[in-house]
Each structure stands twice: as C-alpha cells, then as structure tokens.
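thought: fold this chain, then report.
action: predict
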Amino acid sequence: MPRWNMASTQEILDDSADGQDGCPFMFNRLPGHHQWIILVQICDRWRQIALSTPQLWSVIYLDAPLFARECCMDRVKAVPLHLRLSQPLFRHRKSTLLTEIIGSLNCVETIEFHLTDSDDLILCKGGYTIPSVAHVLRSLRILVDSRNDGIQFLQRLKDCSFPAISTLELVDCVARIPDCLLAPTLTKLTLRVQRNTHQSVDFTAFVQLLSHMSRLEVLQLEGMQLSRNDDKLLANISTVTLPNLHQIVFSANYPSSELDYLALFNLLNIPSILKCTFTFLSHTVLENITSVFRVLLEHLHAFDLRTLLLQSLNHECTFGFGQGSLDIPNSENVLGLISEALCLQICLRHSVSKSTWDDFLGKLKLEGLQTLVLRDLTWGPCCHPDIGMVWEYMVPQCPDLKELSVMGDRAQELVKSLLNSQIVLSELQTISFSSVGRYDDGNVEQGRFMEDVLSLLTYRLTTNIPLQKVTLRECRNVDEWDVEELMSIGICVEWDRYQTEDMYIIQV
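observation:
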C-alpha cells in the first residue's frame, strides 16, 4: 500500500477530533483474498481518499447507503464481502436503507453483529438483515453483552435456511440456539460465554447435534456450561465420530463445567485431532487436574498430536502445576507430550517458586518448537522475579522458533533482556506484542517500550533473522512514526490503535 496512506490516516484522525466527521473505521484483509475491504462510517474526505485508491476493489459505506448504491454496487457483486455491523450503524438516521442495501449484495459471505444493548431497532434490523442473505452466508459472528441475552435476536432466524454456512461464532448468546444455525455444513463452531454466565446448553442435546456435524474441523467451547441433568444417561449416549475434527478448545469457568468438558471429550472419537487446548480454573481441585492429564495421556498418543497447549488461569496452578500438584508436570509422560509440541503457550501470571520453575524448565526439551506464547507477563509480588532468566533459558532450546508472541506489561523487560543477550534466532519470522502499558502502575516506562522494540528489531534481529512481520496490539505510545520506521526496514506491521477498534494492516 502506498506510503501516502499513512499520512492520510493521521490527517483524517486529526480532522475528526471534534467529533463531527470522525467515525470508527477498520481495514480488513480477508483470508484467502487479495482485495481490501473498508467498512467505514463515511465522511466526504474519507470518500475521496477511498475512491482514489486502486487497491480497494470494493468499498461499502454502511451509513451512506445512497452513495454505496450509486457508486459501489457494480464493483462488489463479484467480491466476497465481510460486513461488521455495530450499534452506531443501526442508530444512524439513514439506517432505514440498511436492509435494502445488504439484501441486494448477493455476495455477502460473512456478517458480524455486535449488539451492545437490547434496543428493539438493533434487533429488528439485525433480525431481518440476516435472512436476506442467509442463502449465501458462509460465516456468522454474533456478540452481545450482559444486558442482552440475544435470544430474541436468534429466534428471528429459526425459520431461515443456511445451506452454505461453515463458520458460526456466538458470544454470550448460546442459549436456545436455533437448529438451523447448528447445521451439518459447519466446519468451525465457537460458543463462548464471557459475561452471561447463567447461559447453558443441554449436554445430551448438544452431543446429538454434534453427531450430525461430520464436517466439523474446529470446536471451541469457552465458559459455556453443559448441563448434565442425569449422569446415568451418559451411559446410553453413543460415541460421536468426528472424522475431520483437528482442533479442540475447552475453557471452563466452573469446576462442574470442566467435568462436563471431560465427559464430552470422552464421548468423541476424533482420529484426526492435531491440537488440544484445555484451560484450568482457580477452583479446580487436584483430582480434576489429574483427570485432565489422564484423559490426555490415554487418548492423545493414539492421535497425530502436533500441538499441545496447556494453560492455566489458576492462582495455585500455573501451567498445570503449582501448590499441591507438583507431581503432575514432572511425570515423564506429560513432559514428553510437551516436549513434542510445535506450539507452546505458558501463563506466568501467578506465583510459582523459582526452584519449581527451574526444575520444570530443566526437564523440558523443546528442540522442535516453532511457536512460543508467553501470556500475562504482569507485575506484582506473585510474578516470577526474573522473566529474563526464563526467556534466556528457553529460547536457546528452540533453534527452529518461527513465531514469538508476548502479552503483558513485562514484555518490555523481556525485550531488554533480548537486547542484552547473544541469542540468535535464525528462523524467527513473526513477533507479536500485546497488552503492553495498559495499566499505568509506575512499572512501565511509558514511551520507552517502542524505542526498545525498534532498537531490538533494527540493530539486532534484522541482522540475524528473516523477520517478516511485527504485530502490536493494545500497546501504549505507539504512533505512525514507529510504524513507519519498522516499514522502512522492510517489515510488515499490523497495528491497532490503543483503546480503539480501528486496525491498520500496512503492507510494504
């Protein structure tokens, strides 16, 4: 994308400071497609910039539907579209034309609805927009918050047919899902509960629905309760074979939910599984943790396991071990599974004694590791005292490391450790930093993080590794000049502005 786009973006943001013309916008590059889609709430100046950009094969202005109809309809009819619809769009004075415009776009493949309250206008518009494109819709993502259970919205879809749908994600609206959405054509199903923790799905009914999803490749259940009214009924449930399922993510919010997930896991025959993610809980007792590992050890050796993510959100149990369960990670079987992984995710939020951590690291063999994710590198008395030591111990064991992802304020400490080390990562292609400087607690040197990152990438890593991409998410004090400097050394940068939903993917 031409360099002028950077300056134009900043100019637009400055111009919109008074709130008159400024509207949220987002650049999306669709997976598998080369064209760029911009979904914006448009003002006159943005319109001219967008139309003068030949790289944009299609432009949809959802709050300027007359302009969209007059100038863009012929350009988008052959392009798969990704529409992200949120509350401000429905409240716009011209929203009466929204359904008409979207209904005439027979190439819409993906729709995202972000519902932030129970406003009847939103429910009405959204409920009648989806049926107009249901016959071609391939992906549907619906997010609500705690003031809206989404039931009324979903019930408007119960008589629809989705013959082409392959991806469904429901966040905080998992109760009373219409059968038409849980279609046999699904290849990816994500049901996530973040705030509406009272929502649950009947265990037996869900297993029966899964039995019809032979094409399913990815199953993610996060925070959702599977209600088992009678455990005796489980003995009568037949094993469900999902021949194409290669990834499972189970994350429970309650100890009972964890047992539900384990019961479901035991009912699945999944010969092609490649990746399992289990998240443990602060409430989890030792017996439950042990049972998770027992299930893994009994099943995964029969599969072609390439990635194993064992993460913890537990005050007493970090990375599957902690107070009362130190024997778990030290078992040779578990260490063997971890050592064979291509991707490893470690949460360092809570207290683990230095001796326990050192003992654990000393037994790991990570020669084949390609992706390393270090999560929740936060400050506090319970955190590991020297993240640099952890890093310097692990990375030399990973000569094939291709992707590094670091989340948390202490990422800056890790970057400084890298600057002062002699570690050479000859295969590293992608580095991601996220959630750096979100909390101004006096421990993060504001304004210094990007300076350290730029020094690291410019003076050390680019001379040693084939780095191709840097991702910066929710990182404070990152500006266009930082991004432009990274671009000047030939690195693709993905950056989202701190505390906004705007995302810029800038390709050189």
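thought: worth noting. The chain has a mean pLDDT of 62.
final: tokens above.
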